[in-house]
Each structure stands twice: as structure tokens, then as C-alpha cells.
Amino acid sequence: MLNSILEKLFGKQKTEAPAPAASPPPPRDLDATVPLSPEMAAQLPPDAMTALTDSRPPRRMRLGVAQDVGRVRSHNEDVLLVFTGELAGLETMPSFGLFVVADGMGGHSLGERASGIAARTVARISMEQILPSLLADPHSEVERPPLQEVMESAMAAANTAVVSSVPEGGTTLTCALLIGEQLILSHVGDSRAYIITEDTFEQITRDHSLVQRLQELGQITAAEAAVHPQRSVLYRAVGQGEGLEVDVIARRLPPGASLLLCSDGLWGLVPDEKILKTVQQSHTPQAACEALVAAANAAGGPDNITAVMVQVPPEPIA
After folding, report:
1. Residue 1 domain flag
2. Count of structural domains within the chain
3. Residue 155 covered by a domain
4. Are 287 and 220 in contact, with CB atoms under 8 Å apart?
5. 298: which strand partners?
6. How far apart are CA 67 and CA 112, in angstroms?
7. Exposed / middle / buried, residue 67 (Cβ in 10 Å: 0-12, 13-18, 19+)
8. Rounded CA gap, 261 and 192, in Å?
9. Is 285 in a helix, a strand, or coil?
10. For residues 211 and 227, what is the distance between their CA atoms, to the nearest angstrom?
């Protein structure tokens, strides 16, 4: 009765349900990945980001390439060719690379064609034999072919191709096959390969030139060879006839070492001491190659200049 009277006087009162209690936030996952907020970044020391990105060295080979026609010649007879590959995941294979430098001879078009044919042929023949074993199922019984024999036969095929296609041309040909830390180097002519570490600078190829032979016989000095009028004459080159003799070298590159391939347009103008210093002062192989080409041009740049540099991974940080 009382409720009816109150409803007539004040209207029916609505009773609101109490608001549900707020649920507690879920526990924070301390391992969850979250973006770095501007507030968090502002609290870091100035060099913290550099330390975070550079604290662990890359575990793959690093590559640099550079080439220039030089300051005197109007055309480029040098060729560089690079193949690299790696496989990561559940199954892996060693990082591998094929690096080629060729310096053509025979004048305009002849030298260019000779060096191009030689580089393409040696790459095609060697990769046809090596890649199937690298990409095979690791649980299969596929055997890797003898790498020294592969590179020697690829060089012979390149020689045959140049003799057939450019009989009046020729070229140097320096090829480096790198599988993990295993290096197989095949070489003809006077392009060069160097191994560079923190403590060593070693030329591992032998120039197949007249002045080098005269030096070996003790008839001239290194200083005389540098200015000899026949210093560009080669007694062994790709395309000079059948029965090519090839230097094949097997080495292991120590962790962190660099391999530099270059034409005589670089080493003929830039002394070994400056090459080493330039490499040591460069932060990356690419920066080193560009600086070396610039140094050769600064010294006059009378020839085409080519540099290819690869650095194998350093030891992992424990």
C-alpha cells in the first residue's frame, strides 16, 4: 500500500545495478616482444643503439666490388663476376661464393669480348658441377666433386671458348671459389689475389709476366720491374692457344680474413703498403674496394681498375 502511494507521488523509482568491479589486468609476459617507444629510447645512453646493433658480428661472408674505366682509356676491358649463396633454416649449407676478375687484351672490343667470354664460361662450367652437390639433400649420398679439378677444367673450357670466339684476343683470369672457409683459387695472367688478416698481407698468385720471370731469374729488381717497358707483356694468358697451364691453389681462410682480387690497374698503381692500410681503415669490404679504386685513379688511372673483396665471418662471440 505504501509503495503504491509513493509511486503516485514520485513516480516509479529505477534501481540501478551496481557497476561490475574492474577485472585485474592480465599478468605481463616478460618475454613478449614490444616496440621500443620514444620514451624508452630517450632513457638509453647516446651510443646504446650502436652497441645493440654491432655487439654481434655477422655470421656470413661480406662482399665488396668496385670498378672504373680509369682516367685515360675510353673503354673497359676488365670484367668482374660474382656469385654468392647461402641456405639457412632447419637444414643448412656452407656459404659459398665464386669471384672472378678478368683483364682483357687485344685492343678495343677484342679484349672486352675475351674477358667477358672467359668469365662467363668459367662461372657456368664450375657452377654446373658444384651447385648440385651443395643443394642436394644433406641426408643423401651425393659426393662433392674434387674442387681443384673442377676449377682447372672450367679454366680450360674458358680458354677454349676464347680461342674459338676471339682468336686475336686474350685475357687474364683469376677465380676464387669459396665454400665456408675453404678457398680454391685458379689463376692465369697478372691479375692478383691477396689474403689479408690483422697480422698478414700475402699475395697468393704469381704474375705470369715477363718482368716477373726476369725478377725470378735475378736479372732485374722489383724497382726495375715497376718501370720496365715490357712490364705488361704476359707469357701465359687465356686465349693464347690450346694446352693452357693453370695455377690452382687450395687454402683455408682464417676467421675474419679478407680475400682481395684485383686487376693490374689497381696493384700496378697502388703499393702493397697502401692497399693494406686502406683495407685496415675501411669499415666494410665495399668501402675498401671503393677507396682502392679511388686511390688508383688518384695515382693517374692509366688502366681499367677492378677490385673484388670478400671477408669470411669472424669467430662467434661466446
Report:
1. no
2. 1
3. yes
4. no
5. none
6. 14
7. buried
8. 6
9. helix
10. 10
> Grid coordinates in use for 179?
665454400
Q: What is the CATH number of the domain that holds 293?
A: 3.60.40.10
Per-residue confidence (pLDDT) for residue 36, from 0 to 100: 56
Task: Evaluate whether 101 touches 107 at the Cβ level (below 8 Å).
Answer: no
Q: What is the mean pLDDT of each run of 10 residues along the chain (318 residues)?
A: 48 52 56 55 57 51 97 95 89 89 88 97 97 87 90 98 95 97 97 94 95 87 80 91 94 95 97 96 97 98 97 76
* CB-count burial class (<10 Å; 0-12, 13-18, 19+) for 115: buried
Say how far apart CA 98 and CA 315 lie, in whole Å.
22
- The string over 285-303, giving b where at least 16 C-beta atoms fall within 10 Å of a residue's C-beta and e elsewhere, is bebbbbbbbbbbbebebeb
Short-list 243, 230, 234, CA closest to 207: 234
Residues 6+ apart with CB under 8 A from 308: 63, 64, 65, 80, 82, 99, 100, 101, 260, 261, 262, 289
d(CA 123, CA 112): 17
Do the Cβ atoms of 160 and 141 come closer than 8 Å? no
At residue 178, the pLDDT reads 97
Q: Using an 8 Å Cβ cutoff, are 113 and 102 in contact?
A: no
| Residue corresponding to grid cell 675474419 | 256
Rg of the Cα atoms in the chain:
32
C-alpha to C-alpha distance for 28 and 30, rounded to whole angstroms: 6
Is 278 within the bounds of a domain?
Answer: yes
Q: Which residues make beta-bridge pairs with 83?
A: 98
**pTM: predicted TM-score of the whole model, two decimal places:** 0.80
Establish if 255 belongs to a structural domain.
Answer: yes
Q: What is the CA 148 to chain-centroid distance, rounded?
A: 21
What is the model's pLDDT at position 293? 98
Cα distance between residue 24 and residue 95, in whole Å: 51
Instruction: Give the model's pLDDT for residue 52.
Output: 45
Q: Which domain holds residue 183?
A: 58-311
Check if the beta carbon of residue 304 is closer than 8 Å to that of residue 76: yes
What pLDDT shows up at residue 314? 87
